[in-house]
Amino acid sequence: MESGIDHYLWAIGSHPGDGNIISFTATTLDCGISAEDTNIDIHEGHQYFITVKAVNRAKLIATTSSWAFIFDMSPPVAGYVYDSNPDSTEAEKSDVDYQSNLRKLSVYWDGFYDSHSTIKNYYVSVGTCSGCQNVLRHQGIGIVNNFTLCHIHLGPGIRYFTTITACNTADLCTSVTSDGIIVDNSPPTKGAVIDGVDIFDLEYQSLRNYISAKWYGFSDSQSGLESFSWRAGTKPGYDDVIKTVHLPVTNILIEPNLQQNTLPLGERIYITITAHNKAGLSVESTSNGFLIDDSLPVINKKPFLSRDLGSIVGESIIFRSTLKVKWEVDDRESFIQRQYLSLTSHEGGEFNSTSIEFNFNFSDEAYISICGMVREYTFARLDLHDGSKYTIKLIACNGAKLCVESESSEDVFGSPAKFQHNSSEFDKGDEGFVQTFAVETKNLGQFDNVGLRSPMIHSQFKLVPGGSLDLVRRCSALTCLGHCVCAAQGQRCPLIGTSCNIATLGNKNSILGVYDLINVDPTSNIDDKSYTPSNDAIASKWKIVQAQGLSPLWFEWSAGLSIRDTPQGIFDNLNDEVWHHAGQNYQVILNLKRGKFLKEYPVSYSMFIRAWYDENTYAQFKTDGVQVMSKPPSTRTIRGT
């Protein structure tokens, strides 16, 4: 104050009062700056002191030194920035990639440090790309290690990035950006759960220590699926059978080693699948459930030949190309789901089965697969052999896929009966060679073991002394069409010139009703049919529906196309016997020769019947026709929603 300040001396040194870094420099100013080209030997992280000396005009000196300062030329070391769930606690903090909160955005960080100085401030910015600031611009937040941005509206499906900038006391800064977080506020799309792993939903199973399921339709377009979990209970969503079990991302569940008898009997079991997305949201879907059935189906009646199609006697069949089988099977728990039929032959019973669509093989045998509801099945387009034996085998499976097997007794296919004769011949001169027959005079129309009647034979015998009968071999026609008792089989005698009285139109005699049959049991009621599964046999039965005038004495039969007024289309009018004797029978069966077949639908065939009222009067009747449908209906699978 007395003499005033003359000048200052300032220096920098590694200790207070030293000038070993920058020597003392004089200045009259209140500040000083070292020359730019001065070679300063200074090191990062070391302490340095500024010493100032004030010299007055009396040359007296006052000295003072600054607090130590550290030389720092490097920014802070980069740390790590983590996106966190704003709804989690401090203990639950971890880096996440997804969140469901649309109003908050949280981050925390660690690892930032500066070895030479200290970090004096952190800055935060938020954007929709790495380093961007289009959500929150660069803003200081002090010395903290977490930050939550509140009261904003975040867009679902958008990834947000948070940048943290750390600055030290030398105002050098380092920035680090998080890997981003996607906002997803919606649970996964709900899918569907199917019991079992087959194509179709499982309704029953037999095992009590096995459970399986599959599912489809679960998805999450924003955050994706993180995991699944499942449980099982006796009601939808319950876990009283199996508690929750976690699964990775998959679409199938197979648990083959449950504890014995884990799954209950008599109660529907529901499987619940929970899908979790990466934002922590979830959705559940439950199957429609399944039941346990560990009991076998019950065969109440073994497969047997139905009498209402081509059968006359017992377990036998007279139609070569078709047979009908019936059976009785039951399962009260899981019902009959699928059945399989097989037709097998014994020795001498081979048959042509190329037209049968066997679609299942078991134990080297071919089976036809049929649905579980039916209790009868008609085989068609067969080629059975006369007198051969066949067996029907049945496999019945319930909804739990437990099966039982059964088979019929032996079935016999028969051919028309024939008279047995010897092969000896007698020369009768101008009558040629003849053979002898031994027949019972009580019944000249024979039946075979399956009930087929032999062709009708009209013969006349003459009683000779001694009780023998001689066949009459010379005779004349008995009707206007040449019927006689001495002509060769299938032929007639020369006409005698008498004209026939055809009473088909305006018939004043008894009227017949003629009906197409497939049930050829003579004791059955008449059931007129329009369709037949047999392509090589037709049958007919007739009766008097209006009694008037003359009654029929005997009948003839034939067969042909329904669209014709006379028999055409089956017999060869030039080479075959078109009209056949029926005698006083009211039923006839036509089996075509092996290798010949009737045409399929829509072609219609009729039986033609001649009713003879006397030797010169007859009327012709015919059925309304039957159509052959030996091909099973075609099937196709349609899966609905």
TrEMBL record:
InterPro entries: FN3_sf (IPR036116)
Organism domain of life: Eukaryota
Database matches in PANTHER family: OS03G0226600 PROTEIN (PTHR16897:SF2), OS10G0105400 PROTEIN (PTHR16897)
Name the UniProt record assigns to this protein: Jagged 1-like
